[in-house]
Amino acid sequence: MKNKNTTVIIPDGRQLVVTEAKYYGNGKLLQIEIDDPVSFDIGADNFEFKNVSFYDNGVIKSGVLSYPQVIKLQKEEIEMSSIIFYKNGSIKGGFFTYAKRYTIPQGSFDFRLVRFYENGNFEEGYLPTPISLQTKNGSIMINWIGLYESGKVKKVQLTEDVTLNGIRCTEYDVIAFAENGNYDGKYTFNTNTDEWEKQ
Predict the structure, then answer these.
(1) Which of 18, 75, 102, 141 satisfies CB 3.0 to 4.6 Å to 32 for a cystine?
(2) 3-state helix, strand, coil in the chain (%, to 5)
(3) Residues 6 or more apart from 155 whose CB is under 8 A from it?
(4) From the centroid of its chain, how far is CA 9?
């Protein structure tokens, strides 16, 4: 559910005038867009956001910064324009202001958006330049890759139409793989939870 140009009470108790508000199916606040950026204290840090989404427990899930900032991650510092958080408030990743190269088991690639596991290891990321990935069903072109903690491919987003295990998949489909490399279905985006869910 969406409301435009309305006043809302955000989880920390403040009342804000927002240009748009979205809610979970249970009525809790999911996301707000704001004309005038608002400061939020998260742990020991303070961030100024112009767009914020929340977990259903009220913790900030992600925020678009009013200006790019250098953000400290577990293993590095990098300039970001948006930040993604875990439910405990620690930083999960974000959208970088420039592409950064990471080496993962499948090779070394440039990413613009990356999410990390809580131990700091690569979880998933967006590739501004599509890459070719070798699978059991042959080579596929992708612009997003997610990994299991083992480093095996968990999901990808296609940039071309392909057939996997006899199933037709189209450009922009998000495809799931089991840890053994077998095709394991598709993901769909649930607008009620703001999450990708496997079919």
Answers:
(1) 18
(2) 0, 70, 30
(3) 124, 144, 145, 146, 174, 175, 176, 177, 187, 196
(4) 25
Q: Which amino acid is at 132?
A: S
Q: What's this model's pTM, rounded to 2 decimal places?
A: 0.88
CA distances (Å), 61 to each of 83, 95, 96, 153, 193, in order?
9, 14, 17, 24, 11
Paired tokens of 118: 């809580």
CB 181 within 8 A of CB 152: yes
- Distance of alpha carbon 82 from the chain centroid: 10
E strands, 105-160, in order:
107-116, 122-135, 138-147, 153-158
* Residue 181 backbone zone (phi > 0: left; psi -120 to 50: alpha; other: beta): left
Phi, psi (degrees; rounded to nearest 5) at 179: -65, -20
pLDDT in tens, 136-149: 888 999 999 999 99
Distance CA 92, CA 5 (A): 30
87 touches 57 (CB < 8 A): yes
Q: Measuring CA to CA, how many Å separate 107 from each of 59, 74, 131? A: 35, 22, 10
**Residues 6+ away with beta carbon under 8 Å from 80:** 65, 68, 69, 70, 71, 94, 95, 96, 97
Q: Please give the distance of CA 24 from its chain centroid, rounded to a whole number.
A: 18
User: Domain coordinates of the chain in residue numbers?
Assistant: 2-89, 99-198
